[in-house]
Structure formats: C-alpha cells, structure tokens
Amino acid sequence: NSIIDKTAKIYSGTQMYDSFLGRYSYIGYDCSIVKCKIGSFCSIAGDVSIGSAQHPLDWVSTSPVFYKVSGGTGKHLGSFDIPKIKETIIGNDVWIGSKAIIMQGVIIGDGAVIGAGAVVTKNVPPYAIVGGVPSKVIRYRFEKEIIDELLKNQWWNLNDTELRRLSKYMTNPKELCKVLNNMTSEHNSNFNKMCE
Asked: What is the DSSP string of 35-89?
C-alpha cells in the first residue's frame, strides 16, 4: 500500500508499509518504514526504523498477546483492538543517519538532519540537527534568515530543468536564496503583465 516516486530508490532488505516516498529520495538497506510520508530529496541510511509499533504503557501488560489478533508469540488471549498507527511525516531534503529510530506520529521538518543512532520521540524543527537518546537539537544548519528563505522558496518543488540550472548554487545557501527570490520576482512580474 505504498506509493514510491519513479525517481526514488529503496535498497534491499527494506520493508515499507502504507507509506509515500517522494522524488529523488532513497531509503538504505534493512530499514523498516510504517505509515510514513517522506518528502523529496531525502537521504535515509541503512538500519533506520520509522513509525514502528508501540506497546501500551498505561495497560497492566505491554504484551500484544491481549489483542484480538495474533502478535508477538503468534497467539492471543484477549480481544482488544490494536491501536491505530499514527502517521509519521518526514519533510523534504531530510538526512537520517544509520540506525536512527523515529517514533510514530513524529514530524521531521524540511532540511533537518537526524544523527546516526538517534532516538527521535518529538517533532524536529526545520533545518535542525538532532542527535542522542532521546534526541535533542544540537544546532541549526543555517542562520534563521536563510532557513526562512529556503522554507519560503521551497526549492524541492522546482522541476528538473530548473534544478539543473540552479545546481551550481547548491553549495552556497545565500546565493541560492538570492537567485530563488529573483526567479519569484520575475515570475510575479511576468504574471502581472499577462493580467494587464
């Protein structure tokens, strides 16, 4: 039940359920992805777990044997419904390091970086670099002004022709933002002329 863009790639051993994978994104070897919407240009290393099942902490027992379907041991003693899995959302241009675990229902902002081995239990702001168990913000990739410009212009939505033209600016965030702003101004100016 997953949708995978034709430009995306999933490496062997990875299992993906009820999920979406955006353009030019890839998922490394031996990952588990459950009910997750993954944006464009994401880089997900191997052995990453996103949206896996959770056990009820407020029940007397955390064992799945009390659900009405088989789980864990393959047997069941109860008739409770399995709680619905919460959708996890991974923004665009997100890099997730090897062996990271992202709990279900978490939202990872555009441009964020999840360090190897991190356990992400809370939402991650755009362009934040997080690491640790549980993960914490280490720093931001860029200054606020650049982050705001990148989020406003959303370069990841541009078509391949425009991205090829802009690729020479990908090592210079400030210059890319200037060029994107000029493109937006030109587009608005041309649109206004057409409407006159």
From this structure: SEEE-TT-EE-TT-EES-----SSSS---GGGBSS-BTTTB-S--BPPPPPPPEE
Which among 55, 68, 86, 168 is annotated as catalytic?
55
Active site residue 76: no
Angle ∠(68,37,165) on CA atoms, nearest 5: 165
pTM for the model stands at 0.86
Closest CA to 13 of 24, 27, 23, 34: 27
Structure token digits, residue 181? 């702003």
* pLDDT score at 52: 84
User: How far is 66 from 61, CA to CA, in rounded Å?
Assistant: 8
pLDDT of 131-161, one tens digit each? Answer: 999 999 999 999 999 999 999 999 999 999 9
